[in-house]
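Possible regression after last week's pipeline update?

I re-ran a chain I had predicted before the update to compare outputs. Posting the input and the new output here so someone can diff against the archived version. Not blocking, just want to make sure nothing changed silently.
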Amino acid sequence: MEDQKQLTLLETWRGIAYSSQTTKQESDRFWANYFVLEKGIYEKILANPDEVVKGTVKELAEKYDVELLIMVGFLDGINDSLKEENPIDTMTEDTVVNLGYDKELLYKNMVEAKAEWLYTLEAWNDLIPEDRRKELYKEQKSSHTVVKEKKIGRNDPCPCGSGKKYKFCCGR
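New output (post-update):
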């Protein structure tokens, strides 16, 4: 008898969340429901910014009144914004996790994810001044702006300094 590999919580979450077996309508309904729950968790976390939330995955799911796998999805999403990352790849429902987040990094990551329903939450008004939020928003948006270098024309002087035209030198 072969050993069957047990899926981790994260693999199970991703299997459900990104399943190719669901229709677009089912997927849209799943994500709409998830986003409502996610927003509720963030509202509670941002309301008490000085409280470092810590507990097992199961305890946090109960605390925020969501299913275990929804909490796993939330932990997957917030992990890059935490001061100390959680072991999300190997976590079980009894793994102790920490939600100590970096406010500015979390805000920028929400902007990057295009999660307007999160980065426009009222709670941000008390956490980061409006002018700083605008700066962070611009920083994040411009970090993905690609600036093309000026293209060397075939008849331009070669940038190597030979004095020849580019087409007769390095442009071959």
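Follow-up from reviewer: compared with the archived run. The CA atoms of residues 17 and 37 lie 14 Å apart. Marking as no regression found.
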